């Protein structure tokens, strides 16, 4: 029998290798819609100048146009059309100026080394103004590195300026050509992505039996959800119009985004209650039909998202009414179990809350469906849940300049992470340029370019990106050499187009594959100009390895600020945000949300708290990627991050169930509880920032007991009777004459 063991082990290893190969091929050749569109768009932008240059016999100019088009496209920040146009237009202008300067000074090693430091340091410092300036600065620095490596005279400098103008205009035109035809596509996409993120999070948290609530998968989904939410608020909410004659589409998208905000709170509260109920009476929520209903909700959110993105899609096949009936059935099942839990007060309350959340989710789904099927103009009623429009702050250009100058100057300090990174990038880039120039290394500018791509403010990200780039370059160089054995220019051109597509389809996904195909693209492109120059691939590999090594060493040795030094401050901010969130929720409980702006304060505090909790989780993840010698107290920080997230989720579960009434005595007890919680969280926050033990208030337990008694008096009454099942199955206000109540309603967005 033992004779078969080696063969069994070999078969198992072979299966594992085959599965890994299939997974790699699937990741390489299967794309989602966004990756497919990016691959096509970027291929058209970048390959067209090269093809025109090769056909006209001016391949070098075609490559210059390719560089300008590529780096203008890399400055695309996404989102609203005007943001994209501003970023790409700014990059085009500053890149053209930079190309002229770099071409002239590139032959002087001393001057170009000095200017390399100025460009890298100054461009990195501009990152304090946000993502737009960061992307523009990255493109400008990259063009300086590339053009200083190909110096020439004044006439060529002016010719390159002209080519850069043409290439930039081509990139802008292809990227924004649908602007007049589809003016609302960016906000559509943002809102649709928001609903897709909601769907993914709900799909992850509904499987309570495998304890996914605190898994890394769920944390990653929460991060993506917050990013989608932030993007929606930047594109849709912050820029809405309130004119009576405004196009109804922006108003409808705004309403959908506000409804998605409510769904976020509901899903997070649902996850919290699912966890609690599963710990007390798992049989109530581990029924297959319960999980299937939540999965059906996730599927419906997916379909709603695609409908929002593409107005041509309808809701005929979604049958939302069937899902509403299923939700109502599960809600009724939970309510029928309430009498059996009278001896377990905590389980009774949690199960009742879960039933209320299912009811709330059904109502929100009805509202979203109604918004999508409404044909007329939507009036945004000024209620407590609608964010108030901020009056634009009118200020002179002098005040604006002064504000930006103050921000820049405030970051010119060793305590600023931006300043440290800018100084590190400027110094090591200048050193790389000096090495390449004084040692006359062929294609030496690839050393500095590699440093630009991999060097990040934190060491963990630098090391990860460095190894990815070096590994991708080695693999891509080998495959590029193999491709250059084809001596047919037509076949090479076709291969170039295919490689460009796969390269940019992976631009926002797998970085190793992106670098691998980018290296192949560069090697084939150079071979078109100088056939049989295959050693250029080996030179690129060598320069990339040198640049990657210099970048990783710089991140480790040159004035690093380890995450262990920053995470206490981040956790302090997280605790402060949670404290403010809890205070706003309890304030709404005390006045049962009647005061003007109270629910809006809860909404704002919720966004701030969830943001800081995601930042804390990201900081912990960066800390785990750093050397073991700089991972002190990692278990303590992991505990603090996890419990902060649980506190935030508990506050969210409270926020979605603000009571409608309470007695004066209960309000006083809640005030006392709010004061005690505020005090202890403030002390924990200070202790976390200063690394000292926290004090414990001896009266906290007494306060908690008082509040629990008050809550029991509020909620221990007979559970509310659910309305009849056949009524819950219909949208509120729906009847047979209502064309919007049927499952086959058309979508007019």
From TrEMBL:
Domain annotation Integral membrane protein YccS N-terminal: ranges: 93-360
InterPro entries in the record: Memb_transporter_dom (IPR049453), YccS_N (IPR032692)
Keywords tagged on the record: Cell membrane, Membrane, Transmembrane, Transmembrane helix
TM stretches of this protein: 50-73, 85-104, 110-129, 136-155, 161-179, 430-455, 475-505, 512-531, 537-559
Record's GO cellular component terms: plasma membrane
Domain Integral membrane bound transporter, chain residue ranges per copy: 431-553
Region (Disordered): 719-749
UniProt membrane topology term: Multi-pass membrane protein
Location(s) in or outside the cell: Cell membrane
Family statement: Belongs to the YccS/YhfK family.
Name used for this protein in its record: Uncharacterized protein
């Amino acid at each position: 029998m033992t004779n078969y063991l080696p063969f069994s082990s070999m078969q198992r290893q072979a299966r594992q290798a085959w599965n890994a190969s299939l997974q790699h091929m699937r990741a390489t050749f299967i794309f989602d819609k966004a990756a497919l569109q990016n691959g096509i768009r970027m291929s058209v932008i970048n390959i067209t100048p090269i093809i025109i240059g090769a056909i006209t016999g001016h391949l070098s100019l075609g490559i210059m146009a390719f560089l300008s088009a590529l780096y203008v496209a890399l400055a695309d920040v996404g989102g609203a059309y005007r943001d994209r146009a501003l970023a790409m237009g700014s990059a085009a202008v500053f890149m053209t100026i930079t190309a002229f300067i770099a071409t002239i000074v590139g032959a002087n090693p001393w001057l170009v080394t000095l200017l390399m430091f100025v460009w890298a340091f100054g461009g990195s410092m501009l990152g304090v103004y946000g993502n737009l300036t960061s992307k523009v600065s990255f493109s400008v620095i990259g063009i300086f590195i590339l053009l200083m490596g190909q110096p020439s005279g004044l006439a060529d400098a002016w010719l390159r300026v002209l080519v850069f103008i043409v290439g930039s205009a081509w990139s802008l035109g292809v990227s924004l050509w649908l602007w007049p035809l589809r003016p609302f596509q960016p906000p559509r996409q943002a809102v649709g992505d928001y609903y897709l993120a909601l769907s993914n999070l709900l799909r992850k948290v509904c499987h309570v039996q495998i304890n996914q609530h605190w898994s890394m998968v769920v944390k990653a989904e929460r991060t993506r959800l917050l990013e989608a939410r932030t993007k929606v608020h930047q594109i849709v909410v912050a820029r809405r119009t309130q004119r009576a004659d405004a196009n109804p589409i922006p108003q409808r998208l705004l309403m959908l985004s506000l409804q998605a905000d409510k769904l976020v709170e509901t899903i997070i509260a649902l996850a919290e209650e699912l966890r609690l109920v599963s710990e007390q009476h798992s049989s109530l929520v581990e029924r297959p039909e319960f999980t299937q209903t939540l999965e059906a909700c996730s599927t419906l959110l997916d379909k709603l998202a695609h409908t929002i993105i593409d107005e041509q899609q309808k809701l005929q096949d979604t049958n939302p009414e069937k899902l509403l009936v299923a939700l109502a059935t599960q809600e009724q099942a939970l309510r029928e179990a309430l009498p059996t839990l009278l001896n377990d007060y905590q389980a009774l309350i949690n199960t009742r809350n879960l039933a209320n959340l299912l009811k709330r989710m059904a109502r929100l789904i009805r509202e979203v469906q109604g918004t999508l099927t409404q044909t007329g103009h939507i009036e945004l009623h000024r209620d407590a849940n609608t964010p108030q429009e901020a009056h634009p702050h009118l200020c002179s250009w002098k005040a604006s300049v002064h504000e930006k100058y103050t921000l820049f100057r405030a970051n010119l300090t060793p305590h600023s992470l931006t300043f440290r990174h800018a100084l590190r990038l400027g110094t090591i880039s200048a050193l790389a340029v000096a090495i390449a120039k004084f040692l006359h290394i062929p294609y030496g500018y690839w050393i500095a370019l590699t440093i630009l791509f991999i060097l990040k403010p934190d060491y963990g990200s630098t090391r990860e990106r460095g190894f990815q780039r070096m590994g991708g370059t080695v693999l891509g160089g080998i495959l590029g050499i193999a491709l250059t054995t084809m001596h047919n220019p037509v076949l090479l051109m076709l291969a170039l187009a295919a490689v460009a597509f796969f390269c940019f389809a992976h631009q926002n996904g797998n970085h190793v594959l992106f670098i691998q195909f980018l290296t192949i693209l560069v090697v084939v492109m150079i071979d078109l100009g100088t056939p049989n120059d295959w050693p250029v691939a080996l030179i690129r590999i060598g320069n990339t390895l040198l640049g990657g090594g210099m970048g990783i060493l710089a991140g480790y040795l040159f004035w690093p600020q380890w995450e262990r030094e920053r995470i206490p401050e981040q956790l302090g901010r997280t605790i402060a945000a949670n404290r403010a969130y809890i205070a706003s929720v309890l304030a709404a409980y005390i006045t049962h949300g009647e005061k003007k702006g109270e629910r809006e304060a809860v909404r704002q505090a919720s966004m701030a708290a969830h943001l800081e909790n995601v930042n804390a989780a990201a900081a912990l993840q960066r800390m785990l990627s750093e050397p073991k010698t700089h991972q002190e107290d990692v278990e303590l920080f992991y505990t603090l991050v996890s419990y902060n997230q649980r506190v935030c989720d508990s506050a969210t579960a409270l926020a979605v169930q603000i009571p409608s009434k309470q007695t004066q005595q209960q309000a006083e007890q809640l005030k006392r509880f709010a004061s005690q919680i505020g005090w202890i969280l403030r002390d924990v926050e200070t202790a976390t920032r200063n690394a000292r033990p926290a004090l414990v208030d001896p009266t906290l337990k007494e306060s908690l007991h008082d509040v629990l008694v008050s809550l029991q008096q509020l909620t221990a009454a007979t559970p509310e009777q659910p309305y009849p099942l056949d009524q819950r199955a219909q949208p509120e206000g729906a009847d047979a004459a209502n064309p919007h109540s049927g499952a086959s309603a058309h979508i007019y967005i």
